[in-house]
Amino acid sequence: MALAIDLSGTSAIVFGVANHRSIAWAIAQHLHAAGARLTITYQNERLAKNALGLIAELDGARAVECDVLDTASVEAAVEAASADAPLTSAVHSVAFANREDLEADFSATGIEGFRTALEVSAYSLLPVARAASAKMTNGGSILTLTFHGADKVYPGYNVMGVAKAALENEVKQLAAEYGRRGIRVNAISAGPLNTLSARGISGFADMQRIHAERSPLRRNITQDEVGAAAAFLSSPLASGITGHVLYVDAGYNVMGV
Ligand SMILES: NC(=O)c1ccc[n+]([C@@H]2O[C@H](COP(=O)([O-])OP(=O)(O)OC[C@H]3O[C@@H](n4cnc5c(N)ncnc54)[C@H](O)[C@@H]3O)[C@@H](O)[C@H]2O)c1
Fold it and tell me: How far, in Å, CA of 74 to CA of 128, rounded?
């Protein structure tokens, strides 16, 4: 019986490193520690300096610029990731909404802001899943990141709640579609973490404070805890799990008051 997470001899791609606080970075570190050959993407030239410096810290990791709204760039990143060893894991850790849509009343969301949030934060899982699954010839794992705001109202989360609800439904549909090929599709619903994206959410400080006060573990979670859960879900230890949203939130989601 093998109980250690061992991803040696496999390749993984992680989309969405911006800086050392990025959830994608914590996940990349854990997959690397488990022995996976890593390809890590960053969005654009503006983020390159930070991202390239970090990625260079992981032995043998490849850095690729990738805008998830450009299907050709997603395909090129996945192609690079599967060049040396079979791709078994893809992690989608990408989201965006315009700042004004995370500050005003939800009902004020305009069509452009709605479209942007849904395209980047929900739709983009599809090109990632298509490209990655095409390279997972011997099964694999696709993982995305969601938040409790998919289910419950968090003032300030606004249109991102809609995007995460869509994303969680995509996880179920993709799991059903890819299951017969041995490809599992799951999401981690992380508690609030202080990252670049989180800083754009107007109610973020309250979210963190209330989670720490009321969650069963009486604290906030860490990026490292999400990284560990991601390594588990990406590994053969989670071979029976698909279509699932795993809460890594110190238990907050089970509380009524
Ligand atoms: N921070 C939290 O509290 C929290 C909680 C639950 C879920 N999440 C989710 O975790 C994921 C990662 O976010 P994070 O908190 O690590 O913040 P982050 O800002 O570090 O990561 C978001 C990433 O998305 C990338 N991105 C945005 N638009 C893109 C595009 N068009 N193409 C490619 N990349 C693009 C950004 O460059 C950035 O690297 C997101 O899906 C977020 O919603 C975050």
Answer: 6
